[in-house]
């Protein structure tokens, strides 16, 4: 069980602080909830039912500074996850963003950065759905790495972008 004031990562929301564990009545049933505030977005509040194993499984400890640095430094060793089929690609990417696993997010980020660079070389742009996935992956990785390393968000974004290299996608 997680505790109040604990900093965790919650799948597609990223780094959050558990601000309280409260009870709420939903459909006539009283349930316990983790109440989480994303650290980089004061406007949001996330409620996760304590007894919902599927949603609680999406809460995890944040990366350590060493893990975050290793993720960035080794981003080019991750697999390329490109599929020419738009529907399959969208489904794969949404699954990765929902799960929020750092390694998979890094692979997704690298894939889309390489694809974007390839298209820019031909004076073209990423599809809007791919651009949205790229921004979400960048947001999740950069915020957690910034938190873990105690770095400025802009420094991490810059470091991620400049570290990515690989074949045309």
What structural category characterises the helix and strand content?
alpha+beta
- Architecture (CATH level 2) name of the largest domain: Up-down Bundle
Largest β sheet strand count, sense and barrel closure: 5 strands, antiparallel
Approximately how much beta-strand content do the residues carry?
A: 15-25%
- The CATH topology of the largest domain is Methane Monooxygenase Hydroxylase, Chain G, domain 1
Number of strand segments: 5
Characterize this entry briefly.
With 169 residues, the protein is an alpha+beta fold. The protein is 47% helix and 20% strand. It is built from six helices and five strands, in the order E-E-E-E-H-E-H-H-H-H-H.
Give a structural overview.
The structure is a single chain. The chain has 2 domains: 7-61, Thrombin, subunit H (Beta Barrel), CATH 2.40.10.170; 65-163, Methane Monooxygenase Hydroxylase, Chain G, domain 1 (Up-down Bundle). Helix content is 47%, strand content 20%. The protein has helices spanning 53-56, 65-73, 86-99, 102-121, 128-149, 153-163, and strands at residues 7-10, 14-26, 29-38, 46-49, 59-61. The termini are far apart. The model has no long low-confidence stretch (mean pLDDT 96).
